[in-house]
Amino acid sequence: MQKILVINSKGGCGKTTVATNLASYFATQNLSTALLDFDPQGSSIRWLSQRAKSGKAIYGVHVASRKNNTGLTRSFQMRVPPETERMIIDAPAGITGNELRDLIHLVDTIIVPVLPSSIDIHAVTRFIEELLVVGKVRQMGLNVAVVANRAKKNTLTYKALERFLKTLKLPFVTTLRDTQNYVHAAERGIGIHEMWDKRTDSDKAQWRPLVRWLEDVYLIKTKQKIAH
Ligand SMILES: Nc1ncnc2c1ncn2[C@@H]1O[C@H](COP(=O)(O)OP(=O)(O)O)[C@@H](O)[C@H]1O
Ligand SMILES: [Mg+2]
Question: Is the N end or the C end of the chain the one with fewer CB atoms within 10 Å?
Answer without folding.
Answer: C
